[in-house]
Amino acid sequence: MGARPRWGRRLRRLVHDEAAGGVVLLVAAVAALVWANSPAAAGYEALWHLRLTVGPGPVSVTEDLRHWVNDGLMALFFFVVGLEVKRELVVGELRDRRAAALPALAALGGVVLPAVLFLAVVGGGPEARGWGVPLATDIAFAVGVLALLGSRVPAGVKLFLLSVAIVDDIIAVGVIAVAYTDALEPGWLLAAAGGLIAVAVMRRSGVGPVAAYVPVGVFVWYATLHSGLHATIAGVVLGLMTPARPVGGRAVLDDLQRRLHPITAFAVVPLFALANAGVDLRGGAVGEAVGSPVAWGVVLGLLVGKVVGIGGATWLALRLRVGVLPAGVPPRLVWGVAALAGIGFTVSLFITDLAYTDPALVTQAKVGIFTASAVAAALGSALLLASTRRDRRARAAPGGPGGPGDGADRRA
């Protein structure tokens, strides 16, 4: 009895934070677009190309501001993702195989089909490197849209969307690690592994203060940055190594998540959007995107791929009795959730910059992301509202559940 109320409180808190963070993220993205297409556009590019050196002498790192955001601050975002994944796998909704089976299969369908559609549209060549762009769901935006729909959508819908998106994140991180890795440097890989071993030894030795782990975590990030793997992978792995159960009576993971999630939701991710969503749409860029296989591959992947992939995989899993939907979620609402999962923004933009170096391809992919995300938000909202209105009419109709003439009414 106690676990469910705690989960309910946590779900409400998470939805509130994600919804509010989604608003800030939207404001940052719009600000970036306006700035990049204004008379001050040169200042936008100049700002993010400023080079900054951090660290002393031979161990210093010099990057432009955009890379510090993408490689540095986003490692904190992926650390929080790792915390969330660890929590769900150990003590959350994904710990139960039957409960985890459905969102896992749904997410898998929502990853495979978008990639297949993207490659079918784009074909081969350098453009094909972007097959990972339409894979990811932006949790903040998707949950933000659900929050705007309010109580008209059952709480179980939010739970299902979060579960699918978390599995989606796991797959996206794997794709980044495997498909978008440069030539590996074995020495630095061993150094990063050594840092992770040090973290494990510290845990086993009972080292409690989080501050003691920070220098080791920074070293793991530094070694990963030089190893050829993307530096954000260090954040995910460190998050997964965080104990999900209380240590010495202290809920370390929950404490970290409570402290860091607002920072990533209201500062890191909006700053990432400000640095990466500023696409210059002047000079025929939109027209080029309209005729671009990359843009269409992203749009079809995020819209058709997510809807058919998630909705179809869920339908098949339910028919085969592989998993169950959360309580109060009729199967027809899954299609609205699948459409909202087509809101790909943060991780989609992130993978775009890993996949392409050609500015024209980057612009085309980002136009596809913006277009698909806007349509997915509208489509998902419309599908969910239409289904919930149908349910309300059925309950209010004579003989309907809860309506006049319903069996429960007669028994009363």
From TrEMBL:
Pfam families: Na_H_antiport_1. Keywords: Antiport, Cell membrane, Ion transport, Membrane, Sodium, Sodium transport, Transmembrane, Transmembrane helix, Transport. It is found in: Cell inner membrane; Cell membrane. The keyword Transmembrane helix applies. Residues 392-412 are annotated as: Disordered. InterPro entries: Na/H_antiporter_dom_sf, NhaA. It comes from Saccharothrix algeriensis. This is Na(+)/H(+) antiporter NhaA. It comes from the Bacteria. Na(+)/H(+) antiporter that extrudes sodium in exchange for external protons. Belongs to the NhaA Na(+)/H(+) (TC 2.A.33) antiporter family. The chain crosses the membrane at residues 67-85, 105-125, 131-150, 159-180, 229-248, 260-279, 294-318, 333-355, 367-386. It is a multi-pass membrane protein. It catalyses: Na(+)(in) + 2 H(+)(out) = Na(+)(out) + 2 H(+)(in).
